[in-house]
Write a structure and sequence with these properties.
By secondary structure, the protein is mainly alpha-helical. The chain has a single domain, classed as Up-down Bundle (de novo design (two linked rop proteins)). The protein is 67% helix and 0% strand. It contains four helices and no strands. Helix 1 runs antiparallel to helix 2. The two termini are 17 Å apart.
Amino acid sequence: MSTQHISNSRRETAKKFEDLEVWKKAHELVLNIYNITKDYPSEEKFGLVSQMRRAAISIPANIAEGFKKRGIKDKTNFYNIAQGSLEELRYYLILSRDLGYYEDTNKLHDLIEVIGRMLYGLIKSIQ
């Protein structure tokens, strides 16, 4: 049984990756990215849109995969990959804003910040 915890005041043991608050937030981020990129120019479909969606999907996917790993090193590695993908996505949002494809309302920026802090806390909690 996993010793990972749900990020809330009760600190219950998570039984599946979907119980993790950080996974829920990361999944929410993916849905937001799909929503905003659907209106990007068609010439970006196989470029920026594809890269953004891939980076976004990588975050909750690596959280899910890391959840089932038994060793601390393996878990940390997958959670660290999720952190890297989060930063990659942060850049794509900056690029999208600067290209005029996306108007930064701070909603996604704030969500990325929260996920980043949660991932950091998750890694610290297993080390």
